[in-house]
Structure to design on (642 residues):
């Protein structure tokens, strides 16, 4: 397979850390996305690396036993290390503060700490097998204060830093999940919910493993993803991913089921709002988009993979070492290795190779893998870096070799303009609220973000339509049909059509001598009235005499000031058109000769200058009985034509 066949890839600048081995333990902190390499319990060094910071943090700590968990608070201010099942040790990493360690024991008697999570730079949660304890850390006093605790039997826990939610697995079977939400010093208990197990358990023992659960934000909403290895319905073979929507308020609800149609070992990532499911046995991955239309059975929506299963793009590991040694060829990375561990949303770690990658989606290869242009647009419009790919799809569907039918082209234009209109409306509401002075009363008023899915008229004109109309091998009927289809779509969404699109239509019609069609378009107001359009029509009079009258009618409808029209025409060097216009409305006796002669001189067209000069001489003769200009007319340095 060529590079164009892979739609998933590992980032080209991974975080490289020391491989896991008997002396070096590797830990990952999902909140800060940092990898900790701890040598000999920290005595011979700890190195901390994250995807964003290229400068690793290095330090040593006393070896006080095996490290079970190690994490920095947000902003790397305080380090927390768990070495026993009862206590967590803290060290300040704040300049000029005490370096002495301080310790906190869990409050619940006979409880064992399963782990901990930082929810801010000074707030931490201990999760024990008997509940949850929420603390405020005071680095200056080197002490912790219990803010809130909750007793509950816990099998395992999971933390989603993006949503600031901790999920606890409770009950004997482990399938009742209790979420807690943390914000600014508060801990809120959200409604618990039950995960439907694939079959009725035979024995009362833990049936739900944390390996089969993930939490991730998809399209701004928090979901719990459950990897169900066997469907509840016996007639359906293969595993599935069940998505439970976890709102801030209200009960958790089963919303989507992703059909995998295969069994085996799976792992989940979320990239650019897509759920990626990796399958170890076949060494391939599939992607699901819950925004695309699925099959709704009245309660949940069933989705199938958007594209055929593909491997992640082959990856070469660069050889590390001194420059002369690195001339060795890079080593191919073993993809889908059993030593890979995935973390949400998009992280893959190979502890045995010492790499942390971010998984990425490549959009260009998807274009050829998704032939349905409407579905392709629905998919692309939801992606972060979509603009240039969408514009290339538009150009491609208008090309001779890959031309789409007009109904398909219309569908694509409508999908783009639907998104464009949503943005324009949001922008309008924002401006209205701003003018009404609501920004002071509502601090939440935010300017709408212009995402790459907003493809406006200038994007379409520059990258697609103007290039398309220049192509010699395309039939002019098709060109005009496409331009009119785009204008129809804009009108349908009540978007004001920019004059340059109308100009493009007119130029194309004139180029092919389709004046009868031009006349019809103007007569039936297919092309909206505008000053630039009227000026363009005036300039066409020499090719098509009725254009003069069509233009005047348009300007009258626009109630444009006559002198303004003359100024516009002169600025476009349409000196004769300006003169004809002013004669047409009977104002030629009062106009400034100097203004017209200057404009004619700027064109560097001697014949034009002569014509204009003769016109004003004749006017002088008619009005004053003498062809000469008066000193007041300020026509200095202009020789009398003779």
């Amino acid at each position: 397979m060529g590079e164009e066949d892979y739609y998933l890839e590992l980032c080209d600048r991974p975080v490289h850390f020391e491989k896991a081995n008997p002396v070096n333990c590797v830990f990952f902190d999902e909140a800060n996305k940092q990898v900790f390499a701890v040598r000999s319990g920290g005595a011979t060094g700890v190195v901390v690396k994250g995807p964003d910071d290229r400068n690793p943090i290095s330090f040593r700590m006393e070896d006080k036993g095996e490290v079970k968990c190690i994490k920095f608070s947000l902003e790397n201010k305080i380090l927390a290390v768990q070495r026993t099942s009862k206590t967590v040790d803290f060290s300040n990493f704040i300049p000029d503060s005490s370096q002495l360690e301080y310790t906190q024991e869990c409050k619940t008697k006979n409880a064992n700490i399963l782990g901990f999570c930082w929810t801010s730079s000074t707030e931490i949660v201990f999760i024990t097998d008997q509940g949850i304890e929420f603390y405020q850390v005071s680095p200056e006093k080197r002490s912790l204060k219990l803010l809130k605790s909750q007793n509950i039997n816990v099998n395992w826990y999971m933390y989603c830093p993006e949503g600031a939610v901790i999920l606890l697995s409770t009950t004997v079977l482990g399938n009742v999940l209790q979420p807690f939400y943390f914000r600014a010093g508060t801990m809120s208990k959200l409604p618990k919910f039950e995960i439907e197990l694939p079959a009725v358990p035979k024995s009362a023992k833990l049936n739900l493993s944390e390996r089969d659960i993930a939490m991730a934000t998809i399209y701004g909403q928090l979901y719990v993803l459950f990897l169900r290895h066997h469907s509840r319905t016996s007639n359906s073979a293969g595993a599935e991913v069940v998505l439970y929507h976890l709102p801030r308020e209200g009960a958790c609800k089963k919303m989507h089921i992703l059909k995998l149609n295969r069994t085996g070992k799976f792992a989940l990532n979320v990239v650019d709002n897509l759920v990626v499911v990796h399958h170890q046995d076949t060494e391939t991955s599939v992607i699901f988009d819950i925004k695309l239309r699925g099959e709704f059975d009245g309660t949940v929506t069933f989705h199938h993979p958007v594209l055929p299963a593909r491997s992640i793009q082959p990856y070469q590991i660069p050889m590390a070492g001194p420059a002369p040694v690195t001339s060795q060829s890079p080593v191919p990375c073993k993809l889908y290795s059993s030593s890979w561990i995935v973390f949400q949303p998009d992280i893959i770690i190979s502890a045995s190779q010492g790499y942390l990658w971010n998984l990425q989606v490549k959009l260009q290869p998807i274009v050829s893998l998704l032939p349905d242009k409407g579905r392709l647009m629905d998919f692309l419009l939801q992606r972060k870096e979509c603009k240039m790919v969408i514009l290339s799809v538009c150009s491609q569907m208008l090309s001779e070799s890959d031309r789409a039918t007009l109904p398909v082209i219309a569908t694509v234009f409508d999908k783009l303009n639907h998104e464009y209109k949503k943005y324009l409306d949001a922008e309008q509401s924002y401006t209205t609220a701003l003018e009404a002075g609501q920004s002071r009363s509502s601090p939440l008023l935010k300017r709408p973000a212009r995402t790459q899915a907003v493809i406006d008229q200038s994007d379409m004109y520059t990258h697609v339509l103007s290039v398309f109309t220049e192509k010699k091998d395309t039939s002019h009927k098709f060109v005009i049909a496409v331009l009119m289809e785009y204008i129809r779509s804009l009108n349908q969404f009540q978007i004001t059509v920019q004059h340059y699109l109308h100009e493009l239509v007119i130029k194309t019609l004139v180029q092919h001598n389709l004046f009868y069609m031009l006349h019809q378009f103007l007569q039936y107001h297919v092309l909206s009235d505008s000053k630039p359009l009227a000026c363009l029509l005036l300039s066409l009079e020499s090719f098509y005499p009725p254009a003069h009258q069509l233009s005047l009618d348009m300007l009258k409808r626009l109630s444009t000031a006559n002198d303004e029209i003359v100024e516009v025409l002169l600025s476009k060097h349409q000196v004769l058109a300006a003169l004809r216009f002013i004669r047409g409305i009977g104002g030629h006796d009062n106009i400034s000769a100097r203004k017209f002669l200057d404009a004619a001189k700027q064109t560097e067209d001697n014949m034009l200058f002569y014509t204009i000069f003769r016109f004003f001489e004749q006017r002088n003769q008619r009005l004053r009985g003498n062809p000469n200009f008066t000193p007041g007319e300020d026509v200095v340095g202009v020789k009398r034509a003779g």
About this structure: The two ends are 78 Å apart (CA to CA). The chain has a mean pLDDT of 86.
